[in-house]
Design a protein that fits this description.
- It is found in: Membrane.
- One of its GO terms (molecular function) is proton channel activity.
- This is DUF1211 domain-containing protein.
- It is a multi-pass membrane protein.
- With about 200 residues, the chain is an all-alpha fold.
- It has one domain.
- The chain is built from seven helices and two strands.
- Helix 2 crosses helix 7.
- The protein is elongated and about 65 Å long.
- It starts with 5 loop residues before the first strand and ends in a 9-residue tail after the last helix.
- The mean pLDDT is about 85.
Length: about 200
């Protein structure tokens, strides 16, 4: 009988951390210094800086969301007893969806009043959320994870935030076709929700 091959969870965690760090760095590259401002008046200089704000806010939202996902991903990896190929595959799907975030963020920042641009960002975040939730569910269902590693209250709160985040992103996709601005505000709510103090995993 062929047994399921185990994968070193430490290597998987380090690879994921490295890729997420690269993605977070790429996000800031979309914030570019306006050109030709050396001869600009103070008023013109200020107006050109204002044009950069959507990219700056987009960076903040996406950067904060990746931090939220990284914390959840870190909890998952820390509580794993071991990893297998299927878990690694789900993990790569999560990383692949996350790798497209710089594009969807730049798109929404460049066209913040375009419904499809904002919907693309919300959809991207929804898919990231789904793949991470799949990782958590699969690891518990298959016994790969020590379910007693964290306090029960902490686990339940994280589950509620994960489900709530997915619902918020779906809502943002729908709202974007009526008001892209409100949809962007809706997206920004998710990282804020995770700031709410919950039981420490320690």
């Amino acid at each position: 009988m062929q047994t399921t091959k185990h994968i070193d969870k430490t290597r998987l965690m380090f690879f994921s951390d490295a890729l997420l760090a690269i993605i977070m760095t790429i996000l800031v590259l979309d914030i570019k210094v306006p050109e030709g401002l050396d001869l600009a008046t103070n008023g013109e200089f200020f107006k050109d800086l204002i044009k950069v704000l959507p990219h700056f806010f987009g960076f903040i939202i996406s950067f904060a969301f990746i931090i939220v996902l990284w914390l959840s991903h870190h909890d998952l990896m820390e509580s794993l007893l071991y990893a297998n190929r299927r878990l690694a595959t789900f993990n790569f799907c999560f990383l692949g969806a996350t790798a497209t975030l710089p594009f969807s963020t730049a798109l929404a920042a460049a066209y913040p009043h375009q419904s499809y641009a904002v919907a693309t960002l919300a959809l991207n975040m929804f898919v990231m959320n789904i793949f991470l939730a799949t990782l958590h569910i699969y690891s518990v269902k298959t016994g790969l994870r020590d379910i007693n590693y964290f306090p029960i209250r902490y686990q339940k709160m994280k589950q509620m935030l994960g489900v709530g985040g997915g619902i918020v992103f779906l809502l943002a996709i729908f709202v974007s076709f009526f008001s892209p601005t409100i949809a962007l505000i809706t997206i920004a709510v998710v990282p804020v929700l995770h700031i709410i103090p919950i039981s420490s995993p320690e």
